[in-house]
Amino acid sequence: MKTGAQLYTVRSYTQTEEGFAEVIKKVADIGYPGVQVSAVGPIPPRNVADICAGYGVGIVSVHTNPVRLLNETDDVIAEYREMGVSQIGIGMMPERYRKDAETVNGFIRDYIPVAHKLKNAGMTFAYHNHAFEFEKFGGRRIIERLAEGFAADEMEFILDTYWVQAGGGDPAQWLRDLAGRVPVVHFKDMELHEGAQRFCPVGEGNLNWPYIIEACRVAGVEWILVEQDDCYGRDAFDCLRSSYEFLKKAI
């Protein structure tokens, strides 16, 4: 398994091409060999690819706007083909699909053709979870409906450890349950601060990392992407470095 950085962690620095290049250099200097491109500014896809290649950093995956992916699928495919990436992820389903079992099924119906198109283009649709996917409608969790509704070879999951835990799930068990469909995972730790759950660098919180890492091996995970949604005033690159150093010893 390889360890990469999810660029959402440093999104405030990636809104210009110059800033993006500086981020990739810093990420490479920490030791990360790959990134997930997410929440970057309006930078041409070819330039993104060239900058990453210039520092020896691979593009593992991307997060794209789900509405645009649905309505402009061909354009999105062309852009990410230019970037040289094959896993096309969305951060979550749009809010209108989250109301009940029928709306969740509507999401599945709407995005199955998208998944087909991506597969035919040599790409794969990937779904990143938050906590709400662990709500049950009619006795079935949203994430279960997604796993059953999409063909296994047309949709992968980018399982997020923090959000599985926040949804009341066991990250390691869900990795095992989705084995073969989770080539990429988000490692995100959780701590309790002044009585509230919050994000922290991997290894500084309370998630059971040895258990989760072993489940990753069983599930066929290829890339572990470190992400921290909020650093609460701490330097984001320091957080990425702390996570990297922990995982270098743990994996």
TrEMBL record:
Gene3D superfamilies: Divalent-metal-dependent TIM barrel enzymes. One of its GO terms (molecular function) is isomerase activity. The keyword Flavoprotein does not apply. Residues 25-237 form the Xylose isomerase-like TIM barrel domain. Pfam families: AP_endonuc_2. InterPro entries: IolE/XylAMocC-like, Xyl_isomerase-like_sf, Xyl_isomerase-like_TIM-brl. The keyword Isomerase applies. Keywords: Isomerase. PANTHER family: HYDROXYPYRUVATE ISOMERASE, INOSOSE DEHYDRATASE. This is Xylose isomerase domain protein TIM barrel. It comes from uncultured bacterium contig00025.
